Amino acid sequence: MEKLSTDLLVIGGGATGTGVAWDGALRGLDVVLVERGDLASGTSGRFHGLLHSGGRYAVKDPNAADECARENGVVRHVAADCVEDTGGLFVTTPFDDPAYADLFVNGCRDTGVPCEEIDPARALREEPRLNPRISRAFRVPDASVDVWKLAWALARAAQGRGARILPYHETVAVHRDRDRVHGARVRDSRSGDEFDIEARVTVSATGAWAGQLAELAQIEGVRVMPGRGIMIGMNHRLVNTVVNRCQMPTDGDIIVPIRTVSVIGTTDVDTDDPDDHSVLQDEVDAMLDDGERLVPGFKEARALRVWTGVRPLFEDRKEGGPASSRDVTRAHALLDHLDRDGVSGFFTITGGKLTTYRLMAEETVDAVCRQLGEPRPCATSTTRLPGSGDGKYLHVGDRLGRRERELQDDQLICECEMITRGQVEDAVRQRGTIDLDDLRRLLRLGMGPCQGGFCIYRATGILRGMHGINTEQANEALLDYVRERWKGAWPVLYGDQLRQARFDEWVFQGLLDVEHFA
Amino acid sequence: MNGSLHYDVVVLGLGVAGLTAATRLAEGGARVCVLAKGVGSTHLAPGTVDVLGYDPERVEEPAAAIPRFIAAHPDHPYALIGADAIAPALEWFAATLEHGPQPAYRYTGGLERNHLLPTAVGVARPSALVPQTMAGGDMRSNEPVCVVGIPVLRDFYAALCAGNLRNAGVPARAIEVDIDVGRVEANSLLLARRLDDPSFRAAFAARLALLVRPGERVALPAILGLRDPFGAWSDLERRLARPVFEIPTLPPSTPGMRVYDALVAALRAAGGRIVLGAEVLDVERSGERVTSVRAHSSGHDTVYGARWVVLATGGFGSGAIELGSDWQAREKVLGLALRGMPGPGEPRFTAGYFGPQPMSPVGVAVDSSLLAEGTENVFVAGAALPGSVPWREGSGEGIALASGHFVAQAVLEREGATATA
Description:
The complex is a heterodimer. By secondary structure, chain A is of the alpha+beta class. Chain A has helices at residues 15-26, 62-78, 100-111, 120-126, 147-160, 210-216, 281-294, 337-341, 357-372, 398-406, 421-431, 436-443, 455-465, 471-489, 495-511, and strands spanning 4-11, 31-34, 50-51, 83-84, 88-92, 116-118, 136-140, 143-145, 164-166, 169-177, 180-188, 194-204, 222-235, 242-245, 254-258, 261-265, 269-270, 303-316, 332-336, 346-351, 412-414, 419-420. In chain A, helix 1 (15-26) runs parallel beside helix 5, helix 1 (15-26) crosses helix 9 (357-372) and helix 2 (62-78) packs across helix 3. Chain A is globular and about 65 Å long. Chain B contains twelve helices and 19 strands. The radius of gyration of chain B is 22 Å and the shape is globular.
């Protein structure tokens, strides 16, 4: 196998890693990014989709609030095509301490979070499903962000500057020569091939997996305490504005409208394993009850799916660690392992949150350039990403608009998300993937209320009809998809979504009998 | 405006179970009215009669396998109905379809041996009784198959089907012949209506004839006509001089609609009445008897008095049984008790998609005569019954037909007893 050689090797393809790749490439560095799965398939792809205004941290973590307030505007500018300008509300419900609202106002003022108090009656006119007993309401510039779109926009931007982006490449070893890291050995998880990447600098942007990665470089004591949280995707947008409860951040206090759905989040459970995706029944029940407090009737809506994400909350074992993951700072941590461990050519960037991905990338590449002794200024706060050139925000009606224009041109494959046959074929060709879960992240295939009941058979048939894809691969793509979907569906199956799941079972197990492929 | 009507039997639900029970009752002389919110699963199902396909290995001979299956599953509907009651129900179904509104359209097979028909992904699926228009697809035969895709139909993919047929040992290839419907996409129903037209069939067959090879069976998605499927099928066979068969695919199901049309016609011919779009509001009871059902339809609330009620409203899939967000399950139409619910703390579902799912066999609690628990005159038929997982067993239509038959017989016997007394 070939051996690659580069200036900057980025390990990890979440928002931070793709952000670092783009930042480095924009500054003229040669960049290779490796990611063990699909881009944004770890923590980045497993959150609720909130682009923070900073309001959530205004009282508790003023530094984080300030960072979010600044980066919110930057992301809106450079990645408009990935952002939906929903706006946000903080509302005081009867379940919240009324004294918090004044703290919140002061906190927003002190941290630069734009915040306007509005008449609760007006908030209810704008969001009629909100709890009618809210006593105060504040408008903030929260937004929702399609993180898969963002990660791929960053990747494409970096590719445009010569970067090589390698999803499905797992790092199996970090090459260290005494006190210098000089690259890594990676395995192509599809072909099984292994090869070496020689790099002047290696950045670990592996989030909750940063401790594991540091160990590959024989660096001890990098501890990322994974805080596991569940989110539940509800069909339809129960609200069109991000709605937060005006209280100290806690479980189940935010509903984010994103694309065709809305997501309630989140919980926070300490875990040892960043790959722990268990969902506890008590968490689900508590989350549904929390939804009911914000939006009465919440539990009558269809819960599509539950998923877990692990926050990368950094804790340096060189200092005394705090007790619970919600109390660890939300701020990010950049470790220059030359300063910390006497090992050059290696940096760890972890912690933080999606909203501040760009700032994290900027600080990281600043440090990289310093160590290389090549001052190169950062330009990511002013350079717009591909697709965002016109500064137009994503809009939930965009697909319907396009569909109306193309009604006579292309077949609709996924009715829920309005995806056409041409889009599926283009995505397969461009991405070189036959994984329907990749297409899900890219196109939202099967993410709507029917959860793939119709479109997955169609997409499988389309895959099989394409050049170079054989029957076994197509079968496997279908089976992988239905098994994977079920994992997120079964813990929240009730009401009409159970009815839907039963229909899907009839389609896949009865009508098609996919369990019995020869 | 409100009204009041009296029947011997009110049947709730218009799937195969409800239609079978109602038609049998009407044929037996009972005054029957079917109330249904909408059509049943016929429009979604492939139109085959599956009696027992997996136990859990593939069943070749249902007649031989059912007694063993019953012994191993004493709570299964078949155990209550009895193995002997299944064959007469199938015979009745086949006879009813044969004399139905689609000329010469008939079913073939029985309990002796399952057909092994390809699904739309080319998997051999076991079915006991199948439309004659599908029977030629049996995968025990290694006669080559030419699978015809119709690009405008986004619900069928010939290359995938042919690929899996080959994997299963049946020589197969895929071709495509498009049908111009004046737009970019169509479903099975739209194409079936085209194929009801003999002149369209002639033109379609002429194009197909250029592409099929000698010795091949010709497989088409199940679009061979809604009103005249035998005509469409036999016409293509004759014009191509090749065996032709249909493969059922995603809903809407043309073969299922043929079943619906035939059973509705039989029910009406026997004097039964159907009120479609009727939502049950509440019932009156006298002791453990339901004496009337109040339903809303077309802007009216009507009270339907009845000596007997047959509940054939389906299970979780139809919405007649619902699991709430409080994790309590309810039978929503009559508020009947359920059986098989996992206890508190027990899993409702498990993480493996093909694994056992404790909620799946939940249904309305019945006694051995299929009388709902706590009632004296409400019989239960079809997917509302507990104890089965029909989409995994391949038993949906078998249970619907046999239980529909069984409850009709039970009511007629009791009516007879009443009349004699």
